[in-house]
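Re: the 250-residue chain
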Amino acid sequence: MSLSAVIIDDEEDAQKALSSLLKTNHSDLRLLGSADGVSSGLDLISRVAPDIMFLDVELGTTTGFELLEALGEKRPYVIFTTAHVGYAVKAIRFSALDFLLKPIDPVELATAIHKAMDSARAEQTPLQFLSLQRNFAQKQAAQKRLALPTMDGLVMADVCDILYCLGDGHYTTIAQLNRKPVVISRNLGQLEDLLPQDDFVRIHHSHFVAVKHIIKYVRGEGGEVVMADGASLSVSKRKKQDLMDRLSKV
């Protein structure tokens, strides 16, 4: 099946580089045009209705997320592009969406395109984009809340109320003050990436905790911490010094 694509990127050199890769290695993907901002991107998409949109995270003084918000649910399949490994990439990864780091690797580009062409894997749900937009917006607003994807939808969690997070393979359980625990289908590392590093500390390969919600440290080979909800969590020997360093600064 032949698909079409557009490139939304404010850097002409980046547009040309990606266009060249597509024309050289993916001649079956019809490139319908390029745009350099939110307004021109909206106009291009409304005119040509592409199947795939390569969207730069940063568009001058605006962001690709603003374009997504303007498009609503009538959006093409989105493959983000960015030259910066920062919070935006972590938020994209947390939302289980596709992204390519610049300069774009031809193999990674091929993988992303093949995924988009595979109808069984190409579904991008409104909840994924809602999670992304909420979490990116919260970072801009001093990161007060997180949108957490659950089996039922999204749960909004106040970062200051998160007590600790327990990892179990591809899932993480989040304990909060005065609320039931929330289980999300993201691994512990993905969640840890989104939280303020100054407020949380990894004390074991399978869990990290909010420093301000530690009530007591109990000595031992690694020891354990008692949290504000009464839970006792083990501290690994390797992580003990990290915890001590953090507690000394409280």
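The longest strand covers residues 29-35.
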